């Protein structure tokens, strides 16, 4: 493995009843002026909004609000949030929602402490200089944003979707109660599953030598997702299934299973270009792109794919070549996506070939992407074309 | 799984060259008066002592020393360390060594900030009220103390060996360079392996319902230990093997694979009573006790043992009953201990039956032990007797 420094200071709360017991004390240690950030109002329908308000009111907290955060959160919304924090002298941002709300809140938290436009940080033209304290209450199992320091923001004017973060943007605390995901619609549960699985794949297909423990840890998460996702999708009120899926999403991207590994991340970069133009769900885009990326790159290290077949999907290796096992692994991945009802092709979102060239160019505008194999514009174009 | 709060703030550095690059900056952010704690002088023979002194001197740090920390660190040594810290106004304790040195340093760190005798905290008669900042440089892969808040101290006068800790005693930073374990003797490498494996078993055999991801994560660590330990034991200068073993030891007990699980910990409690009287190596005692604990408890949940057989040892389940698989798992565990040269019986340390009753009584003096199954004095006695 590569030399690494790992530190993840987030206090993670899991399970029912934790919000009721510990939210007030966690929040008030940072102050009593809180910006509540949320999305389209599903937390009002589920009752979570009222619960949080009640708890914070009882604790003497003054609440300000930023609502309407988009599924792919926009820079304009981030700017609004920064303004409120500055004007109202906010002590803590409390993000209540899924990855989009959390990512938006991280951008706001960094932006408040940065003199220029926070977009500079996402464009890699500046580094964060600090951040307002941030706490989260998660309502969607997907991005892992509740226990990492990164996030993705879309600049709708320039059609750019960029990831960014800083050591300052780890949430101080995150509350994950599986019951808060009961009301997540079927399609969002599917997309969330695709997203967390993609995070595992980005780790798993890496060029770093000698990482036996990391490999088995990543396999553990993939296996658990594959074994449990369908139950959560089919039975939205199944506490155990929702809990497992939520916990997998956190562990897939909190840095604990991939220390010292240089992940790939090409598929994320490619998907960001698709959804920057077409505004499709991130998880859906990933489910479409990943199998084609696998086909395109299986010869780079077929034994990695073979391990996926044997260690995750339980394929009996006897009498099969490594290449055969690699093909079986990819077929199994496709089968899983199909089984849970994920999209298979760009055509499922009515996306044709007219913007392929633009997306491929944009994906590599900072240089080649991916680490398992470096991909140039032609490679990305080929993968996108195969995904049509 | 159980509702939980997880937080592990330690900054973990892994790999060669990290000490040279980052030790000075990590240390000096806490001050410039450092107590260097170490053991019997192996760090002098290996050159690590000189390296650390050189780096800290260059950084303008004043170094005080506490050396001679015992393999089962003693309360008297802890008291010495507390005195030095108070007299010399120490800013940071830097523990350089294995688990014993680290555990001793944690006790010192808590003791400095506690008005009474720090032993109160280990006796559960008081809680820690703070701790001096602590950093570590690990030289032995075993206890996981480099990334957790616990430690074990022996009171030689009362023949008591007790574990304790607090949220304050997570190391601020830990440096794990596999090269610093090259000089660890063969027997210590074996004991270290037994120790980290025992930590995994303590997690794995738990009574908590519905923990699929935790199960696979723990299996990942056990599997990696089983697959890689022999190489490190046989080839002490094999960087990859040492790195894997070291990394397994950290991950086995930093809380990341067992969130929301109520571990068992009976074998640790039993072993502490053995080594409190006979001063045998902790890992050796665990290797002796665990297979007998497994025999004694396999009927509590045979399918857990069966999973160990299939998921870790790759046993083909077809045509075998759960009970048969459970027996195979225990046989495989015994086989592994034998293969790496671990002790098999208390007789290997010339321990007879004359203190069994005393050890059994002491083990349950705070009440029944274990969570997979609660064990009373008779149970402990039976397991000890089987271990003779």
Give structural notes:
The structure is a homodimer of 388-residue chains. By secondary structure, the first copy, chain A, is α/β, with parallel strands linked by helices. Chain A folds into two domains: 11-181, Rossmann fold, CATH 3.40.50; 186-386, Up-down Bundle (Dehydroquinate synthase-like, alpha domain), CATH 1.20.1090.10. In chain A, 49% of the residues lie in helices and 12% in strands. Chain A is built from 15 helices and eight strands. In chain A, the strands form two sheets. In chain A, strands 1-8-5-4-2-3 form a six-stranded parallel β-sheet, with helices on both faces. Chain A has a two-stranded antiparallel ribbon with strand order 6-7. In chain A, strand 6 and strand 7 form a beta hairpin. Chain A is globular. The mean pLDDT of chain A is 97. At the A-B interface, strand 1, helix 8 and helix 9 of A face strand 1, helix 8 and helix 9 of B.
List the keywords.
homodimer; 388 residues; alpha/beta; Dehydroquinate synthase-like, alpha domain; 2 domains; six-stranded parallel beta sheet; two-stranded antiparallel ribbon; 15 helices; globular; ADH_Fe/GldA (chains A, B)
